[in-house]
Amino acid sequence: MEHEKYNLGLVLGGGGARGFAHMGVAKALYEKGIRPDIISGVSAGAIAGAFLASGLDPEEVMKLLKDQDIMKISRIHLPKDGLLKLDGLKKQMEEHIPYKRLEDLPTPLVIAVCNLNTARVEYLTKGNLSEVILASSSIPILFSPVRMNNSVYVDGGMLDNLPVKPIRKLCKKVYAVNITPIHETDKLDNLIHIAVRTFHVSVDKWTQHWGKKADLLIEPPGVEQYDILRSRHAEELFEIAYNYTKNLI
């Protein structure tokens, strides 16, 4: 790819159900006439990025997904490789995104995934769209990994939860949205909360490093208070991010 091929790149970080904040950010940007030429996403940001890159309006996406929390779009199965399968998410994507492959999206989309075999992050721009998104969103242990091209893939946020790196040199400007800022918390009352907190703490330095490489880092205040596995506060997250971004730009 050429150096500075794109004017504006938008980076959408991981963060589970907090990903609804990405839609609020997108709405604020769109209202100002700001639309990305390329999107880079991971985990929740990969999901949001896929819908936006397909041409759907942020508010349309909210209507489709706001009642679909992790427990509703997942299927519990025998824990050979993960407690849950993201079958519901795959169905939602295949029903509402009219593109089957990553490279066919109207807006270029880069997805960060973690290859467990090589222990490296990969930034994918081609492949089966729903399969790649599921791989990027599969938190280890909680969700089953995705097998592609003879390798095992899990949540790309394990190695890069704010994928500025793959598009930084391709864009004149990069806006990055971080929905997992690390603050002190008392919400460590079950195994899942502890696992998720450990995950985010482990990648925070890398996230901060690449956040500084963006021309604009958008971190809507207060999003860290919301559960990453439940969507009951989807509209609140949307409004917080929308109002913050509208005033920021």
Task: Summarize the structure in words.
This protein is an alpha/beta fold and 249 residues long. The protein has one domain (6-248): Cytosolic phospholipase A2 catalytic domain (3-Layer(aba) Sandwich), CATH 3.40.1090.10. 37% of the residues lie in helices and 20% in strands. The strands form 2 sheets. Strands 1, 2, 5, 6, 8, 9, 10 and 11 form an 8-stranded mixed β-sheet that branches. The protein has a 3-stranded mixed β-sheet with strand order 3-4-7. Helix 8 (191-211) links the parallel strand 10 (171-177) and strand 11. The radius of gyration is 16 Å and the shape is globular.
- Relative strand content: 15-25%
The third-level CATH topology is: Cytosolic phospholipase A2 catalytic domain
| Overall 3D shape | globular
Averaged pLDDT: 88
Stretches where pLDDT is under 50 for at least 5 consecutive residues are: 69-83
Determine the N-to-C terminus distance: 29 Å
Name the CATH architecture. 3-Layer(aba) Sandwich
Secondary structure tally, helices: 9
Query: Structural class given helices, strands, pairing?
Result: alpha/beta
If you compute it from the alpha carbons, what radius of gyration comes out, rounded to the nearest whole angstrom?
16 Å
CATH superfamily membership, which one? Cytosolic phospholipase A2 catalytic domain
Largest sheet: 8 strands, mixed
Kindly give the count of domains.
1
The percent range for helix content is: 25-40%
CATH class: Alpha Beta
Total strands: the figure is: 11
